[in-house]
Amino acid sequence: MFFSRSCATGSAASPFVPAEDDVFLVSYPRSGNTWLRFLLGNYLSGQKMDFFNVHAFMPDLDENPEAVKQLACHPRFIKTHSPFRPDLNNVIYLVRNGRDVAVSYYHFYIRTKKVPKNFTFAAFADAFAKGRVGYGLWNNHVESWLENPPSRFLLVRYEDVKAKPVDELVRICNFAKIKVDLPRLRSAVEASSFENMAKLDAAQPRRGIVPKEKNEMFVREGGTNYSSYFDEAMNAEFLKAHGAAMRRLGYL
Length: 252
Ligand code: A3P
Fold this sequence. Notes:
The protein is an alpha/beta fold. The protein has eleven helices and four strands; from the N terminus they run E-H-H-H-E-E-H-H-H-E-H-H-H-H-H. The termini are far apart.
């Protein structure tokens, strides 16, 4: 049913209406959403995911609602960066240590030329702590979902996926009511490894972006090394805004 799924196209005319079995992959940007889609896509599709076909298999509701409407496979896996919205159920909410998110978002801003190359991390961290970045305050996003979890809600931590990807993928499959085939699942984890995704990322430049250095890659570091970016003052400022959400998620 779900392996080698052919997501044939349907009609694009109607507005998006969530189906009862839709599964939403929800996160604040730079929390590992693309990795999660590669993992599930490599597991379910019978194809090797890359940076083009992944959008066809698990499209972005905000960027490309038409592609979502055209998915004919079930359950549909749909990505969104939306803060809480009441019409979504079966939500897999992916979180990552907010300070690593800030570091990753900083490099993404430079990659996409939203800020100049010489923009300092200190200036970005200040903007991030005040919610003056694309998706606003990180803690508001996190808390919007944690305070209003839909009846079916699964919290997944990026760091746990890194530490035990197979276990986390099993948890996700169980939540999404998908058959668990361990050998196949291990292959999906391997195909979606940081190294493999970084190679694909380098081979598939997108949106006219040709990275000149590692920090400009989409699959950049995959790390948890925020401490080399945050000095004491930045840390204090960050925690003033985001401390409660960080504690709630077990990051403090
Ligand atoms: P870094 O910039 O810290 O490296 P998103 O897809 O939600 O925008 O998240 C992007 C982040 O996920 C980037 O973080 C990226 O490197 C990381 N990532 C992508 N693929 C990964 C993988 N296979 N393993 C670990 N991290 C990965």
